[in-house]
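## Example record

The block below lists the input lines for one assembly entry, exactly as stored, with component labels intact.
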Amino acid sequence: MFTERFLRDKRGAILTIAERARLEAAISEVKTYRPRKIIAHAGEPLNQSTLLIEGFMCRYLDDRAGLRQLVAIHVPGDFLDLHAFPLKTLDHDVASLTNATAAIVPHSELEAIAEEMPALTRKLWFSTLLDAAIHRAWLFRLGRLDATARVAHFLCETNARLVSAGLSDGRRFALGLTQADVAEICGLTTVHVNRVMRHLREERLCVFRSSLVEILDPAGLTALGQFNPAYLYIDDEAHSLSPVQRSAS
Amino acid sequence: MFTERFLRDKRGAILTIAERARLEAAISEVKTYRPRKIIAHAGEPLNQSTLLIEGFMCRYLDDRAGLRQLVAIHVPGDFLDLHAFPLKTLDHDVASLTNATAAIVPHSELEAIAEEMPALTRKLWFSTLLDAAIHRAWLFRLGRLDATARVAHFLCETNARLVSAGLSDGRRFALGLTQADVAEICGLTTVHVNRVMRHLREERLCVFRSSLVEILDPAGLTALGQFNPAYLYIDDEAHSLSPVQRSAS
DNA sequence: GAACAAAATTAACCTGCATCATGACGATTG
DNA sequence: CAATCGTCATGATGCAGGTTAATTTTGTTC
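Predicted structure tokens for the full assembly:
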């Protein structure tokens, strides 16, 4: 069940058993990736999309000096370049952050789904719009929050997404990122991310050490980062059900 | 022909005559708006979407202090809250910036289109993904560019979009925004936007005065803002054709 | 477990932008 | 036509975060 986490508890877009089976049948291949490998380059035509099963991946834009701005990170369950299906080429690069496993879905299969299953197609569309909603939250982060709040917001978001994917208990989760990665996400320098991390630690809000995030004060971190999870479209009722109950709904 | 500008010269997503007619038939109403009116609130259920015909609109998120971060501005031809169709509620507010005219398309009509016309549906999907691509360019702007480059990048982007909409000749265009609006777009203060504008004027790159942008040195402004229009997915060939030739293709 | 590379940490210094304040100009409004 | 408001403009001051550089810690490989 490679598609298990896809849209797992997203309000109004949870897959039916038949839809999930159809998507599962669309997978042509399962690939593994080493950390920090480029998976797709901006501008090159794509005829497949990637559903992340395990590990973390990211999407980024380069500036003239070669510095990266991450525009998204992806957690297991994300259909991370589904937008390549309508767009045909991407405007950014895609890369792995950690060791990762992903399912490959050829666009010919998506073509067939688009013809035959309008309801599933709409859910695929929804999934790409969720990414856009996350983009907007990131814009808010970069445009209106100071360094500490940016990092707090990012950690809250990632925690919420991993809770939704069943990979965080709401307090602790594995996050195979370096401080340099966080800097590229939050539009800061590595040095300053380090200062921020120390501050969060000293304030007993959050500790991020050896690829493990531990949130000591969830309410405090949420307030500091002005984090409101509404944009993640998580269905709290669906989330409290077991996966089996969910699929049956 | 209210939909005339929609996806006018977007690579791989130009509407056929039949598709354009279908969309035109889906319009239930044409509305006008006064400047700076809120059109949709975050969180409230929507059962219609808005195709902008004339004027400028924006989407924004509020911070705790009530300051706004604009996450998008929209020009004539943009289907600005089409993403409300799959999402059902929005994660942000929508407002007019200037006097504006817009066509309303009920979601029931989009529902019908989704069932009957998969190719048109894919083009609608494409349109929402174009907005996401612009979000990513804005993330790059906020995360990696300094104040001057941010404003330069924004002006280049808006120029390119308006050229595509037939509302700029590539050098001069009407833009009914204040310096405060630009500040909310670029994550700066009004004061600093003013200083940046003076700098651009003194460097003979660009003049923005009484709602008119005049680009004196397109190449210089593009270089300063590290602007690369690839993410706008403009089909240069289609753009050089007349609208009639375009529709026939 | 030695050798090396990658990541985290910290200090010293400096700059770009925020903040605060004040004034000019033009468009509305009473 | 005086008063008010929105926008543009500009100066003075301070600080958040960038820059550079050096050191320590952690993880990896043979």
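Residues 145-248 of chain B form a domain with the Arc Repressor Mutant, subunit A fold (CATH 1.10.10.10). The longest strand of chain B covers residues 48-54.
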